[in-house]
Amino acid sequence: MSNATSAHSVVEPSATTKRIAGIIVVLYAIVTMVPLAWIFMTSFKSPPDSISYPPKLVFTPTLEGYCNLFTTRTRQTPEYIQSLGPPQSTCDEITRSRNMVIAGPSNYWPRFTNSMVIAFGSTFLAVFLGTLAAYGFSRFRVPLADDLLFFILSTRMMPPIAVAIPIYLMYRELGLSDTALGMILLYTAVNVSLAVWLLKGFIDEIPREYEEAAMIDGYTRLQAFRKVVLPQATTGIAATAIFCLIFAWNEYAFAVLLTSGSAQTAPPFIPTIIGEGGMDWPAVAAGTTIFLVPILVFTILLRKQLLRGITFGAVRK
Amino acid sequence: MAEIRVENLRKQFGDFAAVEDSTFTVQDGEFLALLGPSGCGKTTTLRMIAGLELPTSGKILLDGEDVTFNRASARDIAFVFQLFALYPHMNVRRNIGFPLLSQGVPKAEIRKRVEETARLLQISHILDRSVSGLAGGDRQRVALGRAIVRRPKCFLMDEPLGTLDAEFREVMVHELRELHNRIHATTVYVTHDQHEAMAMADKIAVMNHGVIEQYGTPQEIYNRPASMYVADFIGSPPMNFLRFRSGLENGATSVTVGEVAIRVPQVHAAREPGELALGVRPEHVRFSDGAPLRGAVYGSEYLGTNQIVSVETAQGMVKARVAANRGFAIGETVGLELDSEKLSLFDCASGKAVPSSLYAEARHG
């Protein structure tokens, strides 16, 4: 193979460039995957394996972490355990081998459900409000539009911890502390600025002629928005939704401060999983692994939109 | 179908007057072209008729009904956009049927009318295709289909051929006029292309800086331009101007350009001495060895059937359209004879045409 015979394009990168780029991408992917792989592996280790040094790469996988994640257990005398009938499940068996019995379910599922409700609820609200606001900013002559947009963005400029105390006091006063509604409103408020800015960019790119055509075709502006603008903004809406969801899903600072009981989300709950004599790392890792699944699924479902979305419409035409 | 009346229409964007005091009527079934350079206010005028823009002052009447401040959706008009604005997420059939859907027409009826329209425009074979893969001409036809399927009161078109290539534009000009002849829809057509306007329109309104300079049939606009602007904008090459200083008496039948007396249509107004311009179309210039108006050949453009010869005279450059077979040497001195019945006179200060017997014909039909 000689390069002299192949036509050389200025735009198209050469084979060598592509190979180097490929190697860099693979290396980067490996580096970012290491923590994930670590967590995934830890979730299948036994507690002694999880803290052995040097870390074990080869180990006998066990479901103990998952069992411990979903249950609460009490220590019993071997005689008592002997007196019980045969184990009902794999978890039962594992638990008994540690001289314990399952006392009941843990709080993981309720916390996980809280996370789902709060993250998806706030994402829906933020994207819904953001789409309407972005459309308004994009299409109408809003007085002081630039100042308003800057003001909206400025809500993102400080770290959550800076406003945590006032919000804590405010929420306590309003009775919103430790409620799902309170968390949904809070995450919506934080995400709506991102949504407005992202979506305004997408909507700006949709030619006005489409709505004008629809209005001339006999539709009201709202109908034109629904039937013509929305279908074309789906890419942007999907990308925005992913960003909002990831934020709300992973948020820790507000969650740890404002929720403690019934509305607690998974992030502050997972580190509180304590086993006998220290952290139950396999259970923590199992909780984290399961916690990653919804975002993974959501991202895979919307990955086409996400790819087009994060290139900000550059690929659209 | 309907008559469109526009009365004293005015649109102000901040300090900029996009349209000033426009008044015109498009008769039922008539094809009006709004012609002018970009930024002259023609599109703004169209958008106000459509209801996409609200006028600062003035009135728009559709069939006698004041619709000035009605919503676009309530006016029952169709609009063909420059970039067609076909909904990208719908196929051709749904694009064309979209206006009917808003009126609550039953599904079967929509299907029937979409298919009728497609047959009329000869696009039946692409009905189920996606609009994104269509060629320019087909997009154009789909946009037209979406406009006519509803049988609206009138059609408004904003440079619909602007993005097509030259060859295809010619075909579409023909098709559009054909279509108009068949359905006789009142049409307002915005263009900056004089050929399109001349070839299609029953009436042309020439606009400049927000003002309608002249409103008339293509023949009137071409033969009796109301202003130097119109004379210069229409025709290719445009009308020649021979500038000279003189006064005019009412009833005069000749003017003295430089040293040369030239016969003109009888002047119907007097003018104080000032700068005037004698307007002559290139095809009304002949070469004649004995003619007193003389100039030197500057160059020529060969156009196949004829040629455009530029001659430098003391009063300015004159372009003549003459037979292609005659050869000219650059610098050769030639005599020019002007077709005296076809000449226009302009007052350079105002730019307006001086009334004459040629222009009087226009008013009396």
Note down, in words, how this protein is organized.
The complex is a heterodimer of chains A (317) and B (365). Chain A has 317 residues and is mainly alpha-helical. The model of chain A is unreliable at 1-5 and 313-317 (pLDDT under 50). In chain A, helix 3 (64-70) packs across helix 14 (281-301), helix 6 runs parallel beside helix 9 and helix 7 (145-154) crosses helix 9 (180-204). In chain A, 67% of the residues lie in helices and 5% in strands. Chain A has helices at residues 15-42, 47-50, 64-70, 78-83, 90-97, 108-139, 145-154, 160-174, 180-204, 208-216, 221-250, 253-258, 266-269, 281-301, 303-310, and strands spanning 71-75, 100-105, 274-275, 278-279. The radius of gyration of chain A is 26 Å and the shape is globular. Chain B has helices at 42-50, 92-102, 107-121, 136-148, 166-183, 194-200, 218-223, 228-233, 357-363; strands at 4-13, 16-26, 31-35, 57-62, 65-66, 77-80, 154-158, 186-191, 203-208, 211-216, 240-248, 254-257, 260-263, 271-280, 285-287, 293-302, 306-313, 316-323, 333-338, 344-347. A 6-stranded mixed β-sheet of chain B has the order 6-7-8-3-9-10, sandwiched between helices. A 5-stranded antiparallel β-sheet of chain B has the order 15-19-16-17-18, with no helix packed on it. In chain B, strand 7 (154-158), helix 5 and strand 8 (186-191) form a beta-alpha-beta unit. In chain B, helix 2 crosses helix 3 (107-121), helix 2 (92-102) packs parallel to helix 4 (136-148) and helix 3 crosses helix 4 (136-148). The two termini of chain B are 26 Å apart. The model of chain B has no long low-confidence stretch (mean pLDDT 90). The chains are: A mainly alpha (317), B alpha+beta (365). The interface between A and B is medium-sized, with 16 and 22 residues. Chain B: It is a peripheral membrane protein. Chain B: This is ABC transporter ATP-binding protein. Chain B: Residues 4-234 form the ABC transporter domain.
